[in-house]
Design goal:
The chain is an alpha/beta fold. It has a domain of 181 residues: 3-Layer(aba) Sandwich (Rossmann fold), CATH 3.40.50.150. It is built from 14 helices and 7 strands. A 7-stranded mixed sheet has the order 3-2-1-4-5-7-6. The model has no long low-confidence stretch (mean pLDDT 95). Bound molecules: S-adenosylmethionine.
Amino acid sequence: MADWEPELYHRFRRYRAEPVELIFARLRFTRGAGERIVDLGCGTGEHTVELARRSGGHAHGIDSSPAMIDRANELRAALDPELRARVAFVREDIREFSAGGAYTTIFSNAALQWLGDHRAILKTCFDALVPGGEIAIQMPANERETAQATIAALAAEPKWRERLGGAATPSRENVASPETYREILTGLGFAAIDCFHHTFAHPMAAPAEIVEWSRATALRPFLSRLPVEAHEEFVSDLTRRLETAYGTSGPLTFNFRRLFIFARRPAV
Ligand SMILES: C[S@@+](CC[C@H](N)C(=O)[O-])C[C@H]1O[C@@H](n2cnc3c(N)ncnc32)[C@H](O)[C@@H]1O
C-alpha cells in the first residue's frame, strides 16, 4: 500500500480527536517521572507528546510509515527541551514490538485495525507491561454504517469487482466484537477489563466529505488496488452512491462507531 498522507489524515483532526479525549479522560497517571508509555502506530505523534506532557513521564511512539515518523520527529524537534527529552519516535512495525515488563501504559489509537492476529499483539502487550500497567486501545469498528457498507457493495459490482475483489475495510477485516476481546484478554491474564463500542456523531457538510474522510483511511485498501487514473472514477461513483444512500447531497450526520479496550496487568 502507498505511504500514509499526513495532511489528508489531519483534515478531520477535530473529529478524530474525540476518541482520544475519551481515552485521556480515563487514564490516571500516578507514577510521575516513572511513567513509561508506548504509543503503537503513533502517526504524526501528537498523542505521544500529549501522553508525555500529561503523565510527567516518558512516551515513545512507534510507526512503520516513513512519512508519519518524519512528521512526528519534526513535532518533537519543536518541543521545549524538557518535554523533548521525554519523547522519542522510532520507525518500527508493531509486529516487531516487544519489551519485557518495560511499560506502565500501552496506548494505541486507530492503528491496530490495520493488523491481524490481535491475540498475539495483546499477548505482547501483556508481556511488555509492568505489573499494574494498563492498555488503552481504540479501533474504528464502523463497517456496518452506510459509508463502509456502500464501499463494500460498490467494490463487489461487476465494474469494479475484478480489480477490487478481496479488498475490505480494515474494520471488517481485523476488528472483532467487544465480547471477543473480553475473552482474549481474560485468557491472557488481564484484569479490570472494559471493552465497549461508542458511536461518535460528526456533522458533515455533504456525503462528499465522508468520502474525503474515508480516503485517508478505510478507502486505502481499495484505492491502492486501482491505478491512480481510476481513483477519481471510483471516488465519484462512491460519492453518487452515498448521496442516494443518505438521501442528500447536503449536510448530514456521520455516525462513527469505535471499539475501546481498557485492561490492566494484575499488580501481583
Ligand atoms: C489512522 S493512523 C493513526 C495515527 C495515530 N495513532 C492517531 O491517532 O492519529 C494509523 C497509523 O498506524 C500506522 N500503522 C499501520 N500499520 C502499522 C504497523 N504494522 N506497524 C506500525 N505502524 C502501523 C500507520 O502508519 C498510521 O500512522
